[in-house]
Here is the input.
Amino acid sequence: MDLPDGDRGVPPEHELHHSIFTLAVDPQSVAIVPGYKMGTLKLQFTDPRGRFYRNFPITDLGFHNFAQTKHGAGDLGQLNDWISGQKEVFLRIGLSGIFQPPGQKNAYWMQANGIYTFPEAPPGIRIHPK
Here is the structure.
């Protein structure tokens, strides 16, 4: 499916074969940035075809919580430099249910369900309590 550059909304009439996929991206194209709403964080990246995406919600709670601690400490730049220094970054892109945000189209909306860096993961985000 070809959406306009940077568009995250998949039309409801589009026949979906998958609701989640993995995308390998250049680590230097990835950034975690403050969202428009106070206290929110968003993902921006360039896909392998050269399309730039911004304002991607981060639903990977482990990564989001880790990034929030960096944001609260004023260290998002340090986090983004660390991501850029990784050899590989994989994004798990999923679709929301159909909904229509105010002033936007009715659609399935793409979101970052997982952000995975290799060879290192951010400290502590994939550790589960016993």
Observations:
- The domain at 20-118 is CATH 2.40.50 (OB fold (Dihydrolipoamide Acetyltransferase, E2P)).
- The chain has a mean pLDDT of 89.
